[in-house]
Write a structure and sequence with these properties.
Elements (H helix, E strand, L loop, with lengths): L2 H5 L2 H8 L9 H7 L4 E5 L2 E4 L4 E4 L2 H4 L8 H13 L12 H13 L4 E7 L2 H18 L7 E5 L8 H6 L3 H4 L9 E4 L4 H4 L5 H19 L4 E6 L15 H11 L3 E5 L23 E4 L11 E6 H7 L15 H16 L2 H18 L7 E7 L2 E6 L14 H12 L2 E2 L1 E3 L2 E4 L7 H21 L3
Parallel strand pairs: 3-13, 5-6, 5-7, 7-8, 8-9
Antiparallel strand pairs: 1-2, 2-3, 4-10, 9-10, 11-12, 12-15, 14-15
The protein binds 4'-deoxy-4'-aminopyridoxal-5'-phosphate.
The site of 4'-deoxy-4'-aminopyridoxal-5'-phosphate has 15 residues, from helix 7.
Family: Belongs to the class-III pyridoxal-phosphate-dependent aminotransferase family.
Protein name: Aspartate aminotransferase family protein
Cofactor: pyridoxal 5'-phosphate
Length: 456
């Protein structure tokens, strides 16, 4: 039993927690059933306050790329806390961990990126980018260029601006979002919307929607386009190969800045260090978080392309920043995390070995009565549950069957997430083929139990 589990019983922890507000939580339900109390984690396993050992196929929230319980990370954080626990990077100041991390990120990221700005989360990083985009166009004497186009069902975070960039209706509702200056187009979701088109045809058609929206708004009013290379929270939507090159062309044609939100995709998730590489995205900004520290400390980084930085730097003070921008402990942890990812060849393994093996094993679910499509790239994947495999018809109401399946996963000590009726996985990159085999067994139990519940 872990130390925290010994201190209190599950019921006691739940009673202390019950009244408080949690992210993305139905509080009436939380009050009724109480929270799951996670007390410890090791490798890819979580342990709860009842002593259950749970396979985390979601790497926390798509973030614990190196797995839990890495002692060297704790050692680095400990040493940094003793040496310089805090200092800021405001007003022409710096410190060794932030300078070293910036050098590393510039070396690792695509060649146009030679400038880094730090935040604490993916959300505030995207907020900062919007601020930089506005500043850029104002300095370029094109102040009308304000609107940012993004995709319905995209996810870019939870601040007011990040949620406006995102295309989640359930986040816009009740909060009067999106804010002015945001427009959305449909996502490149071939399985759901492709109809009789090939993926390649559909990819071009989905990109053309960007051009249509620019023409509708007037290019002189449009500042930028933002997208996740693969949409994560929206359901691991992997665009056809034709999509991003066409988007890139359109951004160039109409003079839009291009923002690649690599918060999930970055640091090896897709079998590439950054997904901009396989999708051929040459962005002006790249948003990084999650895998940057594998979630051990909060940190985000914005990579700013030379052509943008030159303009931003042509003016005086950039009056923006957070007390904890470039926090020394977070930066030290990020450096050690990147060392582990590189030294243990996690990206190469996800590309050459575990990624292809996961894709092959997921194919087995295609024969399952509930499963319409499986898709994956590297170690991020989805199992789409449908009512009718032939027509791709979804269940009504959407989301119910996904929730049933997710609950069966939890009952069997497996963490997968459900978006609508799509089961999502994004495990730590230290997964071996053995972990994939273990996952397949547990996922099959959950799928079979779900099929039984819905009478299939
Ligand atoms: N962008 C993407 C693509 C994300 O998936 C997320 C979080 N899931 C964010 C931004 C927001 O990051 P954070 O939760 O750290 O604010």
């Amino acid at each position: 039993m872990t130390a925290s589990a010994k201190r209190n019983s599950t019921a006691e922890w739940q009673a202390q927690d019950r009244k408080h507000l949690h992210p993305f939580t139905d509080h009436a339900e939380l009050g009724r059933i109480g929270a799951k109390v996670i007390t410890k984690a090791e490798g890819t396993y979580l342990f709860d306050s009842d002593g259950n050992k749970i396979l985390d196929a979601f790497a926390g929230l798509w973030c614990v790329n190196i797995g839990y319980g890495r002692k060297s990370i704790a050692d680095v954080a400990h040493a940094q806390l003793l040496e310089l626990p805090y200092y800021n990077t405001f007003f022409k100041t710096t410190h060794p961990p932030v300078a070293e991390l910036s050098k590393l990120l510039v070396e690792m990221t695509p060649k146009q990126f030679n400038h880094v700005f730090y935040g604490l989360s993916g959300s505030d990083a995207n907020d900062t980018i919007v601020r930089m985009v506005r500043t850029y166009w104002n300095l370029k004497k094109q102040p009308k260029k304000k609107t940012i186009i993004s995709r319905w069902n995209g996810y870019h975070g939870s601040t007011m601006v990040a949620a406006s960039l995102g295309g989640m209706n359930y986040m816009h509702e009740l909060a009067d979002l999106p804010l002015p200056g945001h427009a959305h187009i449909k996502q490149p979701y071939w399985y759901g919307d492709g109809g009789s088109q090939t993926p390649e045809e559909f990819g071009l058609a989905a990109a053309k929607l960007l051009e249509d929206k620019i023409l509708e708004l007037g290019a002189e009013n449009v500042a930028a386009f933002i997208g996740e290379p693969i949409q994560g929270a929206g359901g691991v939507i992997i665009p056809p190969s034709t999509y991003w090159p066409e988007v890139q062309k359109i951004c160039k044609k109409y003079d839009l800045l291009l923002i690649a939100d690599e918060v999930i995709c970055g640091f090896g998730r897709t079998g590439y260090m950054f997904a901009s590489e396989p999708f051929q995205i040459e962005a002006d900004f790249m948003t990084l978080a999650k895998g940057l520290t594998s979630g051990y400390m909060p940190l985000s980084a914005i990579m700013v392309a030379d052509r943008v930085a030159e303009v931003l730097n042509s003016f005086g003070d950039f009056n923006h920043g957070f007390t904890y921008s470039g926090h020394p402990v977070s930066c030290a942890v990020a450096i050690e995390n990147i060392r582990i990812i590189r030294e243990e060849k996690m990206v190469e393994t996800a590309h050459d070995e575990t990624g292809p093996y996961l894709a092959k094993r997921l194919e087995e679910f295609k024969d399952h009565p509930l499963v319409g499509e499986v898709r994956s790239m590297g170690l991020v994947g989805a199992i789409e549950l449908v009512k009718d495999k032939k027509t791709h018809k979804t269940f009504e109401p959407v989301g119910k069957v996904g929730t049933i399946c997710r609950d069966h996963c939890v009952k069997n000590n497996l963490i997968m997430r459900a978006t609508r009726d799509t089961m999502l996985l994004s495990p730590p990159l230290m997964w071996t083929k053995g972990h994939i085999d273990e996952f397949m067994k547990l996922a099959k139990i959950a799928l079979d139990a779900t099929a039984k519940d819905v009478g299939l």
